[in-house]
């Protein structure tokens, strides 16, 4: 179910970095459904082609690594050259694995910071002169680890916290050019690679769901609706914001057991 009208994004061009699977592909699909011309990018060329094929005729599937500034710049140029000036850019590429700091090499830590944080800088920095200005809307996909420290997630907590501040700084610097920069912080989303890594068993998933205020995992389509709002005219005075689409997860452990523990 959606509150948004058909063809809301007709005439818009969207580039979704990390849009070849999961949540970001769901966002790209929804944008295309609402009439936008869409390009998705990831490292694996076959996966990118399949993702574009699943979005529909005219969608572009591009291969690049967001850690490589020249490569992401070339992908953005190809998208803008083929589809037109970019109205929407999503930075959603990310990496995660579960490991304690002492089980993580310097390269392991750097790899996640490089994909998530440096990658977001690269995607946004490289897109600026290809944006339709004024009017463009950028979204970085962050996570609850940006705010809530979590064991086994040193790399992701550091990277996503950096993304939150980057969103705010770019919103300040690029607001005068008519470019809005916002974030979405999804909670645990069902059927995603991210949650397969964080809660690999049904038991772990159910335990986590029991701590979420809305008592369930979210759906990819629900994050996509937030991503439509933030790029729509309805959000034209919203910049530097991070929208939690997380069933209240950010509020903390909402299990009754925790309530009793606090009394
Ligand atoms: P996913 O399916 O693994 O998607 C990751 C995407 O990024 C893929 O398209 C992947 O394609 C691409 N990618 C990874 N490394 C890349 C690189 N170095 N350069 C370019 N592309 C790269 O992940 P997901 O679980 O849906 O998560 C999507 C986003 O939501 C992430 O930012 C994640 O942190 C955030 N998030 C997820 C959840 C959740 O419940 N899953 C919760 C909170 C936040 P290739 O592998 O082909 O490169
Ligand atoms: N525990 C500890 N260290 C790990 C690890 C784990 N489970 N997985 C990878 N690493 C380390 C590697 O050992 C390596 O360090 P080293 O060179 O000191 O040995 C470093 O991380 C980089 O690994 P590599 O496999 O070369 O990186 P990559 O660039 O090919 O892949 C990852 C990046 C590791 C993040 C990979 O999991 C990935 O591509 N993820 C994308 C999908 C994803 O994570 N989706 C969820 C998004 S929330």
Automatic annotation (TrEMBL):
Pfam family, one: adh_short_C2
A single MF term (Gene Ontology): 2,4-dienoyl-CoA reductase (NADPH) activity
Keyword set includes Oxidoreductase: yes
Gene3D superfamilies reported for this sequence: NAD(P)-binding Rossmann-like Domain (3.40.50.720)
GO BP annotations listed: fatty acid catabolic process
Alphabetized UniProt keyword annotations: NADP, Oxidoreductase
Alphabetized InterPro entries for the sequence: DECR2-like, NAD(P)-bd_dom_sf, SDR_fam
NCBIfam families: PRK07576.1 (NF005752)
Similarity section: Belongs to the short-chain dehydrogenases/reductases (SDR) family.
Protein name: SDR family oxidoreductase
Organism: Vineibacter terrae
